[in-house]
Amino acid sequence: QEAAKYDKKVMVLDFVTPTPLGTSWGLGGTCVNVGCIPKKLMHQAALLGQALQDARKFGWQFTEEVKHNWMTMTESVQNYIGSLNWGYRVALREKKVTYENAYGEFVGPHTVKATNKRGVEKLYTAKRFLIATGERPRYLGIPGDKEYCISSDDLFSLPYCPGKTLVVGASYVALECAGFLAGLGLDVTVMVRSILLRGFDQDIASKIGEYMEEHGINFIKQFVPIKVEQIEEGTPGRLKVTAQSTVGNQIIEGEYNTVLLAIGRDACTRKIGLDKVGVKINEKTGKIPVNDEEQTNVPYIYAIGDILQDKLELTPVAIQAGRLLIRRLYGGATTKCDYVNVPTTVFTPLEYGACGYSEERAVEEFGEENIEVYHSYFWPLEWTVPSRDNNKCYAKIICNIKDNERVIGFHVLGPNAGEVTQGFAAAIKCGMTKEQLDGTIGIHPVCAEV
Amino acid sequence: GKSEYDLLVVGGGSGGLACAKEAAQFGRKVAVLDYVEPSPQGTQWGLGGTCVNVGCIPKKLMHQAALLGSALKDAQHYGWNISQPVQHTWSVMAQAVQNYVKSLNWGHRVQLQDKKVKYFNIKGSFSDPHTIRGLTKAGKEIVITAEKIVIATGGRPKYPTHIAGALEYGITSDDLFWLKESPGKTLLVHLSLLHFCEDVVCISLTDISPDVSLECAGFLTGIGLDTTVMIRSIPLRGFDQVSRKHQMSSLVAKHMESYGTKFLKKCIPTKVEKLESNKLQVTWKNTDLGTEESDSFDTVMWAVGRVPDTKTLNLETVGVKTNPETGKIIVDASEATSVPHIYAVGDITEGRPELTPTAIAAGKLLARRLFGQSSELMDYDNIPTTVFTPLEYGCVGLSEEKAVQCYGSDNIEVFHAYYKPLEFTVAERDATQCYIKMVCLRESEQRILGLHFIGPNAGEVIQGFALGIKCGATYPQLMKTIGIHPTCAEEVTKLHITKRSGLDATVTGC
């Protein structure tokens, strides 16, 4: 869309290869269809379930039995996504960007072949190319995985309630999904190979796990599934999962209605003909290395988003990178995407917002004696009346002593973590120090004032 | 002779307690006096001051109760099957809130004890510059002498005593949170009886705006009560207060109208009478139509401003100067009054925002300067605030109007956006008034002068940005900050349409 502003002739190819179970979706990519958007809406549904319980303490009265209807929620969510898909098509049309629902792959220099659903092939040439094909969920590679397991690609449009669910994985995807499924009243178990939320601050990661465990989610730690078999067909059916310990020979079995795999995502770069035009990819991860201007090793081919090597897999980062790239190519701008201090939020039942260094990374980079960690547990005012946990919400900032106690890491665990973190991220970008933080008056009573 | 105490704090509220506890940390002998004169309706409360007992805390909790009512409605769209009808019971909420407040009163007493601060539940007044005397509830007289004295007695709601029946039959925010029974059909009257000065308008919404009446009306509506706000738009040096001077407050009020709160605009009450049914008959003048109208209500709440609590202190005896118009104590940048060893913090002080965190910070810094060899003064600039109306409004820095006044409209750039919170989509909620506005200097650096946000969790959103503004944040720096997706706060980092351009500021796309 940005390129079209500069009167360039632009074409977008988008194609969704159906999941093993046949799920597909419209224009917009992962975020819109099977990522951020449906995830946050279902997380909201779960939060509302909690709100219902709180409401009673605040004087609201309604029947004891409150049940959740998966289909009502999923239909509403899918309708909203449909409106976004439609919105994108209209936006592209209005900006005179040619859109084709076809699978693109390079066949030679400056040439791409587009194959649509019916198998019709067309060739297109362009001066420049931008690869933004993103990723898809990884499968375990064990018997029964593709036949019987689902992934996040399927979950958000599942036409039946998943029932008793086993979530395999310890990524934020796994924890967020497990979180909202449990919040909707389902029996949820998470099977974890080793640690939770690899790459995130581990002190916080363990608090998140603890909170989830205390709120009804079962964790099976240090096991990996080795086999999934179907006991009974159905929507949902019944599956038997066999798992092996990673620290011994123990084998366990369990029965679930649904098995959700959330063990990682693979870049969609292997089958788009990159070898034909010489674009180098990391053979192990499939990701594309680019320079700080998002350029691949082939000068006229650029890449952005989840497929980039060593960059964050986040929607706003991709959007920002894409816009700035075009402004540099056609608008004469020089601003590059700033990948430092990008804030994120994990929408687990107890939300986690972060910006900057984790405690481990800060210690690694600066040395333990050079950093100061300030922290505090807090009790959101809204949790007092309904007697919710008074020692779970937590905030910590990490400061670089040598640099005027500059804040290099911000972490908050509590409600509305994303809303709280955003502003602090802006302040960190302005080089905020501990003194400035102390000198800022809090808004009372909100969680962020902690 | 030598004084009994190093520090005597008169008033056990946000400012007073913070100051006392901080001073005690330095090993000083500290005493706190706190006393609550019952309201005309007889309401009383414990240690902790306005915020804890009849301000921020119960207000936010009742606001939360109302928000949960909306959540119940949203929940049905998200698949939760809730039987209709859904009822709200005032007494369950009020008791829960009151119990929590009482636990805070208790907590404060324990804290004072732990920090070895002596607490007297007496109403004190100066008998000489270093001496305060007062009577305990039992009638015993207590005399206390101190080297230094901090006055932090705060304020109480005003009654429009010129209106017949106002004192006898009306209540104020002092009473609302402690009602045991539902207030029923309620009329909230906002009358600005103070003089306005431009400064007050821009520092914080709380000083002049119908905050209290809007916040209370908001949660009363939210829990299902028939609620009306009577408001007279005061001509303010030629400007209409609600519609032009404050774009943001008019958006907030518009939302409340669609939310179900009734507004009686341009009306002034003339009398309140009690009917046989025990209901209250209110008569008012409609200044627009020139007619007289009346209606009956179960409760009438006055929200006509607050008066500083200085009457019984005997300040004239010791020479502490107050502002003759407002009655507030005049202090300098170090919180010192006209008498060298007497200081004041919090709502009682002239020209300061009436906010808890401000009082706490000022109190702490004062204690550090008095006893801790610090020289740090309180910075009253860029103090963020939030109004907890049904659709919340958070802000920090200058209002657009004040910025135009200070710098000229050619020298400022206003970026704005109408956005829709993701959670409103499935819930089918109206997001018409969800709005963000950032006021910047137009010159090259584009420093941010003010940020305004209307939407859910406004306080949480604004807090971090307030920090950024304290660090001198500029528009380019904000644009370099990546958004967190999906949140409402990220819309701040995406602001790019200016008011000057006249373009449609509605956010589109994902």
From TrEMBL, chain A:
Q: Keywords on this record? A: Disulfide bond, FAD, Flavoprotein, NAD, NADP, Nucleotide-binding, Oxidoreductase, Redox-active center, Selenocysteine
Q: Which SUPFAM superfamilies match?
A: FAD/NAD(P)-binding domain, FAD/NAD-linked reductases, dimerisation (C-terminal) domain
Q: Where along the chain is the active site annotated?
A: 444
Q: Which cofactor does it need?
A: FAD
**Which class of enzymes does this protein belong to?**
oxidoreductase
Where is FAD bound in this sequence?
A: 40, 104, 306
Q: Name one GO cellular component term.
A: mitochondrion
Q: Which reaction does it catalyse?
A: H2O2 + NADPH + H(+) = NADP(+) + 2 H2O; [thioredoxin]-dithiol + NADP(+) = [thioredoxin]-disulfide + NADPH + H(+)
UniProt function note: Reduces disulfideprotein thioredoxin (Trx) to its dithiol-containing form. Homodimeric flavoprotein involved in the regulation of cellular redox reactions, growth and differentiation. Contains a selenocysteine residue at the C-terminal active site that is essential for catalysis. Also has reductase activity on hydrogen peroxide (H2O2).
Protein name in UniProt: Thioredoxin reductase 1, cytoplasmic
The source organism is Crypturellus soui
- GN (gene name): Txnrd1
From TrEMBL, chain B:
GO CC, one annotated term: mitochondrion
EC number per UniProt: 1.8.1.9
Domain Pyridine nucleotide-disulphide oxidoreductase dimerisation as annotated: residue spans = 383-494
Q: Which GO terms describe its molecular function?
A: flavin adenine dinucleotide binding; glutathione-disulfide reductase (NADPH) activity; thioredoxin-disulfide reductase (NADPH) activity
Domain named FAD/NAD(P)-binding is located at 5-363
SUPFAM superfamilies assigned to the protein according to its UniProt record, in alphabetical order: FAD/NAD(P)-binding domain (SSF51905), FAD/NAD-linked reductases, dimerisation (C-terminal) domain (SSF55424), Nucleotide-binding domain (SSF51971)
- Transmembrane region(s): none
Keywords, ordered alphabetically: Disulfide bond, FAD, Flavoprotein, NADP, Oxidoreductase, Redox-active center, Selenocysteine
Cofactor(s) recorded in Swiss-Prot or TrEMBL: FAD
Q: Is Flavoprotein among this UniProt entry's keywords?
A: yes
Do you know which InterPro entries this protein is assigned to? FAD/NAD-bd_sf, FAD/NAD-binding_dom, FAD/NAD-linked_Rdtase_dimer_sf, GSHR/TRXR-like, Pyr_nucl-diS_OxRdtase_dimer, Pyr_OxRdtase_I_AS, Thioredoxin/glutathione_Rdtase
Q: Which domain of life is it from?
A: Eukaryota
Answer yes or no on keyword Flavoprotein: yes
**Could you tell me the Gene Ontology terms of the biological process aspect for this record?**
cell redox homeostasis; cellular response to oxidative stress; glutathione metabolic process
Q: Which family does it belong to?
A: Belongs to the class-I pyridine nucleotide-disulfide oxidoreductase family.
What name has this protein been given in UniProt? thioredoxin-disulfide reductase (NADPH)
Species of origin:
Crypturellus soui
